[in-house]
Structure prediction request, 368 residues.
Amino acid sequence: MIGQAAGTAAALCVEHETTPRGVYRSYLDDLQQQLLKDGATIIDLPGHDPRDLARSAAATASSEKTRPEGERMAAANVIDGFARITSTGRTSAWAPDPKQALPQWVELAWPAPQTFNSVHVTFLTRNNARSVSRWRCGRRACGVEWPTCLGTITAATCWRLSVRPPRGCAWCWWSSRATSRACARSASTTSRRGCWRSPAAPRACATCPTSRRKSPGTTAPTWVTGIDPKRLTGIVVDDREAEAVGNWPRSDYTRPYIGCGYAHDENSGKGAKSLRFRPKLPKDGTYEIRLAYSANGNRSAKVPVTIQTADGPKTVHVDQRVKPPIGGHSVSLGKFHLLRATAAVTVTNGGTSGYVTADAVWFVSTGY
Prediction:
């Protein structure tokens, strides 16, 4: 919280050409409201940003829960300005009556069309998540059901958050800028929300990406926030589908990337970590193999990548300091004859100095 406040205050200093003392004297309210908007907690301080369209809406719900303590978790709580439990214990959140049948929903409606380009949703707690929350346009202005565009819908006057039976936990939204979108995974039957008008110029309605993959051992879908692997030629194996030895945390800091981010070796455990990519090839044949990775100056200059070919293993070294030539995300490792039963590509960090990253490996057939 302290670091977030300091960083936000520094940004205000730059924006208003002032000092930290000047922020305290003249822009303290701006700082507090921005922190609240970004998900920080300031005890008992409500949000009152004039750009928050939710505050001017009428909130209704299919049902409302009454807590044992007597508090009614009413629909109006989603627009009261509080995104966290107050010091008195009031949840300031909406929850449906658990005795009522699904689906349940909370809805914001305006008397006239509104223009907005981002929607912020705060769930009471992930630990209470029991079902997936889905968005849909109440007036179906653009004909989209799910996943739903949450961009600029000037023809719609209401939005609805529907609670569906359990199917994992995923919800997604787009901002109005074509180059800026955000996806998050969360779910709960208890929620708050806000609709914000930002200075960015709005654009036409666009649907959230529908492509998703299931991570190994999970049932929750992984929503694509980068390049959709289904749009690439050939067979793509994402880093989330690779067999990992050692710890390979994932990041989405550097774009472009395929899927939802890329894996890296933390620049540690040299020689003890690897990622093995096994494709499901239709048949034996010759394939061009491409490695997708995240380039940066702190990456390794000689990452060993071993291809299991029909003639045995072959190792290629990749300089990950250099931006990949294919789309800025991938480099060709060459053409190799592969056997459907044994084909594999392994990225290791043995003998490397610097970070080793791996985003995906794709196989493009060139003949048999």
Remarks:
- Helices lie at 2-16, 20-26, 28-37.
- Confidence is low (pLDDT under 50) at residues 126-222.
- The first strand starts at residue 58 and ends at 61.
